[in-house]
Design a protein that fits this description.
The structure is a single chain. The chain is α/β, with parallel strands linked by helices. Helices cover about 25% and strands about 25% of the residues. It is built from 8 helices and 16 strands. The strands form 4 sheets. Strands 5-2-1-6-7-8-9 form a 7-stranded mixed β-sheet, sandwiched between helices. A 4-stranded antiparallel β-sheet has the order 12-15-14-13. A hairpin with a 2-residue loop joins strand 10 and strand 11. Helix 1 runs parallel beside helix 6 and helix 5 packs antiparallel against helix 7. The longest helix has 24 residues. Keywords: Protein biosynthesis, Transferase. It is an enzyme of class 2 (transferase). InterPro entries: Fmt, Formyl_trans_C, Formyl_transf_N, Formyl_transf_N_sf, Formyl_transferase-like_C_sf, Met-tRNA-FMT_C, Met-tRNA-FMT_N. This is Methionyl-tRNA formyltransferase. It catalyses: L-methionyl-tRNA(fMet) + (6R)-10-formyltetrahydrofolate = N-formyl-L-methionyl-tRNA(fMet) + (6S)-5,6,7,8-tetrahydrofolate + H(+).
Length: about 300
């Protein structure tokens, strides 16, 4: 079976590897163009492009699937296209190129969390269980019929990065199984059913912690935006990056945003009980422990996050 693989970030790499391991003929890889990375803004290939080049697979770099890109895809005569977090819309003209269309691995239990940030939104919302689904790509936003699903428990300490890593591995197996079923003529996709929820791409503002909110909401948000775009707050107008905060239910006498140094721990008041800060990165500095950060404050007892 001739497969075009479309994907960009690191979470898509296990799926590419799984298809190769399963014996599929991956004829080309479609990925986003090289992008500037790091403080020096060095142009860097996407993780999927880098892996494809290691495997000797032709790479099609495209910011969007336009007429030229569609023609290049058609030139490889794929039987099916597998897509995992490519980062762009596939228009109608391209959807019809592979014989069996495009099969999308999406990291949610559709129709829950349709969109670009399903894992992040699931954690922020406090879901206990999430998962992944393979479905037939259509013009609508993640609306196509579903081939298969898997479930994954959301652990209390999970960040979006943690959960995505696990789902990328289990989802790779699901995608390979789905393509095998299609190749064998045994696939029977079913229409989506259930309550629809949307998962738009996260912005920087999604990472800001509002200390007036309950501690549990702040814990979920800080985990859901880690590693990107990251949790943050402000102090005297300066943005401070934060690693996920943990719950301290026994401390309920701090006003929202007010800090207290407790040994090597730094506590912050919320709309309910306190939370404990993880590592902290002040503007222009490296990540540091809460204790090291607090030692640099002239009067920590007077510090109030904005």
């Amino acid at each position: 079976m001739r497969v075009l693989f479309a994907g960009t970030p690191a979470v898509a790499v296990p799926s590419l590897d799984a298809l190769i391991k399963a014996g599929f003929d991956v004829v080309a890889v479609l990925t986003r163009p090289d992008a500037p990375l790091g403080r020096k803004r060095v142009m860097t290939a996407s993780p999927v492009a880098a892996r494809a080049e290691e495997l000797g697979i032709e790479v099609i770099r495209a910011a969007k699937v336009d007429a030229d890109t569609t023609a290049r895809i058609a030139g490889h005569a794929p039987d099916v296209a597998a897509i995992v977090a490519y980062g762009g819309i596939v228009p109608r003209a391209a959807l019809g190129v592979p014989t069996h269309g495009w099969v999308n691995l999406h990291f949610s239990l559709l129709p829950a969390w349709r969109g670009a940030a399903p894992v992040q939104r699931s954690i922020i919302a406090g879901d206990d269980v999430t998962g992944a689904a393979t479905f037939q790509l259509e013009e609508g936003l993640d609306t196509g019929p579903v081939f298969g699903t898997l479930t994954e428990t959301v652990r209390p300490e999970d960040t979006a990065g943690d959960l995505l890593e696990r789902l990328s591995l289990s989802g790779a197996v699901l995608l390979s199984q789905t393509l095998s079923a299609i190749d064998a003529g045994q696939a029977a996709p079913q229409p989506q059913s259930g309550e629809v929820s949307l998962a738009p791409k996260l912005t920087l503002d999604d990472g800001r912690l509002d200390w007036r909110q309950p501690a549990l909401a702040l814990n979920r948000r800080s985990r859901g935006v880690t590693p990107e775009p990251g949790a943050w707050t402000t102090l005297e107008g300066q943005r401070i990056k934060l690693e996920p905060v943990t719950l301290r239910p026994g401390v309920d006498d701090l006003a929202p945003g007010t800090i207290r140094v407790d040994g090597k721990s730094v506590l912050v008041g919320t709309g309910s009980h306190a939370v404990e800060l993880g590592r902290i990165q002040p503007a222009g500095k490296k990540m540091m422990s809460p204790a090291d950060w607090a030692r640099g404050l002239a009067a920590p007892e007077r510090v109030v996050f904005e």
